[in-house]
Amino acid sequence: MATDPLAVRFGQRLRQLREAKGWSQEELATRATLHRTHISLIESAQRSVQLDTVEKLASALGIPPSDLFLSGGAPAPTTTLKDRDELERLLPFVREFQALTTKHGIDDVFQDNGGKLLQTLILLDLKKLPRREGNDATDGKGNEYELKTVNVRLTKSFSTHHHLNPTIIKKYRAVAAWYFSVYENIELSKIYRLTPSQLESFFKGWEKKWKKDKKDINNPKIPLSFVEQHGELIYPLPKKP
Q: CA–CA separation, 146 vs 79, rounded Å?
């Protein structure tokens, strides 16, 4: 009988990982092309493990071989292992999503609301502009637009710019329109359209603050309530009577 402490820890760890999968010793043995008795002897630390066996077990469990040598005394990471399997299943779809966002000029689907920006661009038939002063876009006629998003589960106001100054405000005034996309977590519920003239009270207030403090303003907000009250609902389109 093996008395090596490493063999004991390895056996405990293997049992935890197997049980976290909900597998019997026989099922793990089948997946690893080993005999069930072999699995039983390893888990009870009655047999030393060869390197090729470690590789077979790790491959069957879908983990790096090094994970089999972590402490066997820790609680079985059931959720972690299942989540890891689910992540591996979903990653190809995330990569496809990223390929689509890259096509539309967005480098990272997870950064700066990239995925939500993509949805707005496609629905409104707009093209993202390359510069990074806000989520700007253009249409086929060369008109420029400001795009904003909000997740109402987190906040009730739209962010603007982390270094707002007269140059940015001038740009805000020059666009053809602002589009405000309202989300509930990742689900788009509404898009509103406002003209710069409808937002002039904000522009004047920000200008006044900048002149007073003589420094850039850190991300002033536009309340969702204002957008809902004054904006034109363009998505979803109102149902015809």
A: 41
